[in-house]
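User: As part of a screening pipeline, I want to sanity-check one entry by hand. Below is the sequence and the SMILES for magnesium ion. Please return the complex as structure tokens so I can compare it with the automated output.
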Amino acid sequence: MIVLEGVTFSYDGGPPVLKDVDLSVGEGEYLGLAGPNGCGKTTLAMHLNGLLRPRAGTVTVDGLSVADPSSLRKIRALVGMVFQDPDSQIVGMTVEEDVAFGPLNLGLPPREVRRRLEESLEQVGIAHLRRRSPHTLSGGEKRLVAVAGVLAMRPRYIVFDEPAAFLDQAGRALVLGVMNRLHREGITIVHITHDLADLVAADRLVVMEAGTVTLQGPPPEVFGALMEGEGPLAPPPLARLLWGLKRDGFPVRTDVLTVDGARLTIGALLGGR
Ligand SMILES: Nc1ncnc2c1ncn2[C@@H]1O[C@H](COP(=O)(O)OP(=O)(O)O)[C@@H](O)[C@H]1O
Ligand SMILES: [Mg+2]
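Assistant: Here is the complex for your manual check:
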């Protein structure tokens, strides 16, 4: 479990970017963290594995405190990070080299490095790209290389910062599909985005605004609450449609967040067939 209590942070001499944030990430959870640009999501992400340390408050990962320098190595191994810009994470001349970089750096024996490399490539479905230069890959493929590199470190948690940013529909589906599969395989996922439509299937949503957590709960409840508010973050179109119909007095379900689910509840209203 990752637990943040009263986390406050500011960059050198600047105004506070995180203000008294309490947050927990349960084992096996798919947690969505959403908020408008600049609200502090990436800053928060960097607290989850000790890349940044809070000015006040505490962060613990499986009971280990990020304030304890002797725990940092262990914490970074437990919590993998897939950064927003995949290019910033690429270090190898080939996909293979890139994915093997972390395990090699850990000083693991060559056989173990090879095993992790094979498994990670397989897990994200990019074994066929192994000899390619990462810089020649599509945006979606690059992101998967970054994911494989993180998986090779065998993390228990993976934080994805805007994993669908700059991707087309296909790239987006590819990356989100891999994230869902990793979750089903038991990895705890923290998915950060400014786009709530990517988080309809999350176990729990946390909404941030200007450095504080303003809402959290199951996606349908959070979308309902956002419909009431006037904040900068709008619920996804389907949620707006269903909540809008409900507000107009129609007895539709508001907990179905897929096109097919919405079709069924609206179809029932129209008399069904
Ligand atoms: N390295 C940095 N130095 C100073 N200010 C920063 C730095 N990184 C981010 N900020 C500021 O912190 C605030 C939150 O940024 P960020 O965590 O990147 O938000 P988000 O990921 O939600 O867009 C912004 O006002 C941003 O300008
Ligand atoms: Mg960000």
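Points to compare against the pipeline: Residues 169-184 form the longest helix (16 residues). The domain at 2-218 is CATH 3.40.50.300 (Rossmann fold).
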